[in-house]
Amino acid sequence: MKITKLLTSVATAGAILVAGAASASAESTLEIVKKRGHLRCQVGQPQPGF
């Protein structure tokens, strides 16, 4: 029973850390877009004619 509580606590802490890192990354991406002045929307390599 104690091991289950410990694993649950560790998993929860890990999820919180990952969520915090993701939001910090999103903020830096937003700053890049603001500095650039426009949003680039593209998936993959550029295709000829587009």
Q: Mind describing the biggest β-sheet?
A: none
What is the rounded distance between the termini? 59 Å
- What string, H for helix and E for strand, traces the elements in order? H
Dominant shape = elongated
- Helical run tally: 1
Q: Name the beta content range.
A: under 5%
Descriptive keywords:
50 residues; mainly alpha
Summarize this structure briefly:
This protein has 50 residues and is mostly helical.
Describe this structure in words.
- It is elongated, with a radius of gyration of 19 Å.
- It is mainly alpha-helical.
- The protein starts with a helix and ends in a 14-residue tail after the last helix.
- It is 70% helix and 0% strand.
- It contains one helix and no strands.
- The model has no long low-confidence stretch (mean pLDDT 78).
Topology record:
Blueprint (H helix, E strand, L loop, with lengths): L1 H35 L14
